[in-house]
Amino acid sequence: MTPSSEPAAPAPPAATRTETVPTPAGDARVTWYDAPVAHTVLALGHGAGGGIEARDLVALAAALPPQGCTVALVEQPWRVAGRRLAPAPRTLDTAWRQLWPALRAPALPVVAGGRSAGARVACRTAAELGAVGVLALAFPLHPPGRPERSRADELAAAGGAGLPLLVVQGERDPFGRPGEFPAEVPLAPVPDADHGFAVPRRAATSGPQAMRALTAAVAAWAPVAGRS
Questions:
Q1: Model pTM?
Q2: Residue in 150, 76, 62, 170 with CA at minimum distance from that of residue 114
Q3: Which of 6, 89, 96, 166 has the CB geometry, 3.0–4.6 Å to 50, for a possible disulfide?
C-alpha cells in the first residue's frame, strides 16, 4: 500500500525492556510495556509510513498495562535498519512469524494487532500462529479513492477462523471510513479522526478525546479476546 502519514505522538511511558529478535529479513525489535499483573499480551506492529511512535500505539502502551494487558510494540527489520520504505507483504509476514515465539514467551494469551500495514500482517497470520484475537487499528480497507481494491478478505480470514476481531477506525480515514466496512466486522469508530487518528483543529472531538475513545474501546475488548 502507499505509505501514509503517521504523525508522532507524545513520548510513551518508560518501557519495561527492549528485545532484539533475529529474523530472515534482519533484526526486529520488541519494546515491552509490562502489566503489573497481566492477563494478555497485545502485540502491535506499526504501519508502512511510520514506527512505534504513532499516537495510537503510544496511547495503548500507556493505557493498557495498568488494566492488566502487557503491550509489546514490534518494529519490523526495515524500520530497525533505518530504511524508509517497507518491503513486500510476504517479507513483513515472514518477520512477524519469526517474532512470534518471543511474543509468546510470557506464557500468556497473545492478541495479534497493529496499525495500517501492521494490522494487515496480523490479520493474515493470526490463525496460523495461534493468536487469540486480532486488533486492527486504522485498517487500510482500500487505497485512497480506490474502493474497488478492497482488502476485506484479510479481515474475513481472521473472522472466519473464529478469532475475536476488533477494527478501530477513524471516521475520516481515506483508507476506509467505518461505513465502508462489511456489516459483520466488529468496529469501533473514532469521531473526526483520520488514518493517523489525528483530528482537525476545529473538530468537535479533541485529540485527547479521540485517544480516550480508542483506548477505551480496546481496553473493553482485550480481556474478552484474551479469554477466548
A1: 0.92
A2: 76
A3: 6
